[in-house]
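Exercise 7b. Backbone tokens:
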């Protein structure tokens, strides 16, 4: 076992933090649950506004970057073509950033909004219906994808412009923190990132496992109990272990290809054999609502509450803030992937591509799957709301899919898709966790190291499940994400600092930034010709 390659302070730091959180929860489940729930309320109530501001600023910042001179920088050498065509690029991007949770929320999110709509709207009213089908898209839309894209900026820049592969978040903030990233500060940053990702993966597992269990229950009649959920987690770990054994490229590629085609099939099937016109009209309508209310949704915090006799719904805390935190904990990890696949694109293409294609993909899932359920509800063919009140969300999701033609077959496909989605989340998360605790990675992180983190990812949810506290984990992202707000800020600063310095000094910056030089030359030329044009102009009077 090569242990010299391991960056022990980070490895042990992450492990201590993980055990420090898990062990008390295992030893004192009831008290632990209470503490976690109070920590969540404390965070979202007191610091929720920070998450909201962060989301909005990141979005504005990325739009700025895309259209600034920094956006024209090419990630690669002059004349280099994008490494992947746009379709594969968008598909890989989507697969890296999205997991089983989209199946969960796309199908069921509208039910929550319908029953507890935002902006003081009457529950289950006509207005609530409109918000119900639009809000999900907002939470999986441009701001969310902007959060994902931000870390990709410095990382891709270092990879393909400065030609210094970066595998750690601490490396990506070197331009602002300098040499101090080589010491404890760097370790702390990496540990916090790992902690966040473990929290995010915890949320994913805690949601995905019960849904898959209900899928299997619907297919086989085996009760969706603890044993079944344990078996599912182990199955996902095994699928992942096999794919990790065959290496990143082959393993993840095969799984994400299957995912892609299965998703396309499922979406097309629901669209064609479901209420096609209703789905199209409602989705299109939602885009309008979203465009019209984008800023309102991005800033809605319901601050007045008791102070002015406003009825507080807790909507921003339970939804928007929770979501931004969840996207945030996955962001550096997705950023690493996006950066790696973006060779040959400009920063602008990478930024706009992620935000646009990412959002579009989510619009398809929410528009098709969500509005199918909504249609069933509104036409009285299936009362999802009553079913959910009686049986909980995971069973309702499966039951909605069960309303499709070829019901059993569709539930089977849906469940398989969820399993593979979950396995790919394991696969890529453990890959990144293992890379972060290595000093250097030649090709791939060490296998034992990857397997170790995959099991670490699994142990916490398993333990909590046996103690009946799986819901505790559903909000793990909120606590895990907090320190990342600062890290995101550092990442943005780092990118601006590095790219601005290079643009300024591009004359002696060789060879990968020739395009920066070209950009300066073009600008000079433009200025010159503008001046000449001015001089050539005949006198007006
Ligand atoms: N996000 C996209 O569980 C998953 O699908 C992974 C979840 C952050 C809400 C990502």
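Sequence design result:
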């Amino acid at each position: 076992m090569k242990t010299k390659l391991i960056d022990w302070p980070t490895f042990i730091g992450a492990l201590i933090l993980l055990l420090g959180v898990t062990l008390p929860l295992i030893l004192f489940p009831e008290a632990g649950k209470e503490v976690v729930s109070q920590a969540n309320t404390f965070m979202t109530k007191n610091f929720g506004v920070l998450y909201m501001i962060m989301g909005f600023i990141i979005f504005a910042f990325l739009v700025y970057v895309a259209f600034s001179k920094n956006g024209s920088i090419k990630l690669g050498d002059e004349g280099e073509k994008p490494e992947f065509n746009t379709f594969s690029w968008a598909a890989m991007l989507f697969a890296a950033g999205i997991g089983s949770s989209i199946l969960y929320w796309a199908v069921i999110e509208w039910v929550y909004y319908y029953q507890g709509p935002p902006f003081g709207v009457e529950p289950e009213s006509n207005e609530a219906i409109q918000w119900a089908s639009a809000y999900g898209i907002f939470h999986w839309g441009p701001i969310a994808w902007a959060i994902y894209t931000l870390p990709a900026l410095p990382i891709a820049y270092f990879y393909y412009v400065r030609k210094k592969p970066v595998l750690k978040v601490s490396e990506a903030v070197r331009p602002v923190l300098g040499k101090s990233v080589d010491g404890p500060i760097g370790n702390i940053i990496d540990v916090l990132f790992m902690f966040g990702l473990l929290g995010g993966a915890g949320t994913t597992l805690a949601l995905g496992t019960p849904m898959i269990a209900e899928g299997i229950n619907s297919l086989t009649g085996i009760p969706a109990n603890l044993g079944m959920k344990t078996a599912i987690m182990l199955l996902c770990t095994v699928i992942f272990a096999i794919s990790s054994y065959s290496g990143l490229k082959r393993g993840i590629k095969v799984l994400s290809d299957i995912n892609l085609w299965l998703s396309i099939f499922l979406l097309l099937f629901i669209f064609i054999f479901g209420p096609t016109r209703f789905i199209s009209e409602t989705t299109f309508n939602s885009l309008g609502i979203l465009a019209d209310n984008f800023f309102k949704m991005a800033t809605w915090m319901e601050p007045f509450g008791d102070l002015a006799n406003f009825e507080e719904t807790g909507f921003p805390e339970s939804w928007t803030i929770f979501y931004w935190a969840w996207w945030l904990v996955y962001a550096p990890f997705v950023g690493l992937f996006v950066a790696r696949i973006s060779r040959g694109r400009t920063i602008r293409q990478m930024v706009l591509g992620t935000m646009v294609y990412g959002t579009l993909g989510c619009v398809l899932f929410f528009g098709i799957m969500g509005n199918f359920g909504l249609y069933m509800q509104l036409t009285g063919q299936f009362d999802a709301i009553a079913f959910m009140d009686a049986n909980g969300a995971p069973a309702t999701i499966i039951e909605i899919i069960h309303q499709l033609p070829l019901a059993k077959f569709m539930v089977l496909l849906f469940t398989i898709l969820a399993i593979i989605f979950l396995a790919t989340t394991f696969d890529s998360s453990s890959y990144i966790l293992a890379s972060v605790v290595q000093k250097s990675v030649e090709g791939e992180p060490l296998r034992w190291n990857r397997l170790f983190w995959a099991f670490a990812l699994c142990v916490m949810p398993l333990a909590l499940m046996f103690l009946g506290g799986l819901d505790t984990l559903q909000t793990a992202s909120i606590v895990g994400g907090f320190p990342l707000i600062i890290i995101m800020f550092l990442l943005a600063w780092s990118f601006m600092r590095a790219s601005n310095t290079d643009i300024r000094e591009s004359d002696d910056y060789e060879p990968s930034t020739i395009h920066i030089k070209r950009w300066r030359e073009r600008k000079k030329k433009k200025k010159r010709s503008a001046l000449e044009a001015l001089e050539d102009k005949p006198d007006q009077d």
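Instructor comment: The chain has one domain: 3-300+312-530. The chain has 22 helices and no strands.
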